[in-house]
Every structure is written in structure tokens, then in C-alpha cells.
Design brief:
There is one protein chain. The chain is an alpha+beta fold. Helix content is 16%, strand content 27%. The protein has a 6-stranded antiparallel β-sheet, with helices on one face. The protein has a 3-stranded antiparallel β-sheet with strand order 6-5-8, with no helix packed on it. The radius of gyration is 15 Å and the shape is globular.
């Protein structure tokens, strides 16, 4: 497992419900440059870190270029290669430049959309134990359903980067994540 500095703190922001993208009262987190990916197998490095911290059901790809969210599960996105400009939080959210070594953690309901990416951009996606990921598009009907499912999504037992004592666990409990 890669060595991650224990004193790294993620950037945290809470996105408001915009009427189509529900977002979440728990903060969206971004760890900048937290995973050492200067090797021949950065995908395996991130997969090893996420797996060791209890996040699985992984995939390798990019981030879709259309606005979507996941209403039944939280998601971690680890950038293995390249860089991209991604808008998180829906059309009224915030644009972030994410690059190799960064990890974004999206509480259920957080909108996301890739606006541009380098040709070599590769992300590892992972989820805590629980329901399978479902892609949800922002419509009034989906928003109504998501407002019922999001509060039922269990709080992860671990931070995908820092494990059991990671900032995610503390921050999400503090911001209303109570399901265990």
C-alpha cells in the first residue's frame, strides 16, 4: 500500500441542493497530490490504497462529460494519470482542476461533470460497501426520488485515503452523516 502522509487535510465544500442536483449536507472532499503516482502502475497504486481502506467495486475510466450523480452510494475518484477540469455540485457548483495523485470523494447526490481532460486522463472510481452505483441524470423526478434515498446511504466506516481515522469519517459525522 502506498505511504500517505497522516497530516494531509482535504479541501472540503458543501454544495447546496439546486432543485435538480440534490448534492448532500456532508462535504465534498478533495485531497490534492496525496497519492504517490510517479511509477509505472499508478492505477494499481490507487486501487491498492482504496482496497486497503475498504472501498471496492472499482473501475478505471474518466468522468462522464454530462452532469450526473449517484443517489444510492458515495464515490471516490482517484486520478492515476493526466488532469481534467471537473465541475462538482451541478451547474451551480464549482470547477476543480484535478490531476494525477488527487482524490475526490463525493457524498451521495453530488453532481459531477467533466468539462475537459488531457488525453491520458485516467480515474479509478471506488465505493464503500453497500448498494451498486447507479448513474442518475438531473430531472425533477430523479431529484424527488434522490431526496428519499440519499439520507438512507450509510456513512462509510473508512476514508478511502486515510482509513478508519481519516478526515472523511469525522467531517461526515459532524455534518449529519449518522447512518451506520
Amino acid at each position: 500500500m502506498p505511504v500517505v502522509s497522516a497530516d494531509v487535510e482535504p479541501f472540503a465544500v458543501v454544495f447546496a441542493d439546486d432543485g435538480l442536483v440534490p448534492n448532500n449536507p456532508m462535504p465534498f472532499l478533495v485531497y490534492k497530490g496525496v497519492v504517490p503516482v510517479e511509477n509505472d502502475h499508478p492505477e494499481k497504486t490507487i486501487e491498492g490504497l482504496f482496497g486497503a481502506n475498504g472501498w471496492g467495486d472499482m473501475w478505471r475510466n474518466g468522468v462522464y462529460d454530462y452532469l450526473h450523480y449517484h443517489a444510492t452510494v458515495h464515490e471516490a475518484l482517484g486520478v492515476a494519470r493526466g488532469h481534467a477540469r471537473v465541475r462538482f455540485g451541478g451547474d451551480h457548483g464549482k470547477e476543480f482542476e484535478i490531476s494525477a495523485g488527487d482524490v475526490a470523494i463525493l457524498p451521495a447526490g453530488t453532481g459531477h461533470q467533466c468539462l475537459s481532460a488531457s488525453g491520458d486522463f485516467c480515474v479509478i472510481g471506488a465505493y464503500p460497501p453497500g448498494p451498486k452505483m447507479q448513474i442518475t441524470r438531473p430531472t425533477p423526478e430523479n431529484h424527488t426520488k434522490a431526496l428519499k434515498t440519499i439520507p438512507e446511504v450509510k456513512l462509510p466506516r473508512t476514508d478511502p485515503v486515510m482509513g478508519e481515522s481519516g478526515p472523511l469519517v469525522t467531517l461526515w459525522k459532524k455534518h449529519g452523516g449518522s447512518k451506520r
